[in-house]
Amino acid sequence: NKRFLKNGVVKGHFCRLSVGDDIVICEGFATGMTLCTHYMQSSSLYVAFNAGNLLAVAEVLRVAFPDAEIIIAGDYDRQTGTGQRVALDAARAVNGIVAIPSFSDDESGSDWNDRWNLDNTEESS
User: Fold this and answer.
1) 93 contacts: CB under 8 Å, gap ≥ 6
2) What is the average pLDDT score of the chain?
């Protein structure tokens, strides 16, 4: 289970995993590690910790870095569409772009970590 400190503040807070040119914001830590290690190695990677915090983190980072390219690396929530919708809303709010992993109907998974593991079964085991 993912749990936060009781009465802890999450909104607008984040964890930076790497430093680079563009800003990439994602939901979870494992996704962030996969992105900065395998997909977006020259970017500054920030973890928002949940979909509901993507917009707040994007707004904080836009103020801090007004000229930076901001990429929202959202989740692909097949059933609800929440990850795609929230990522798009956050990107629109900060004049950023969206990157969502794709999955075929017979693949399970919802984030960039899942996508990398499916594509690299030998390396991820």
Assistant:
1) 55, 58, 59
2) 92
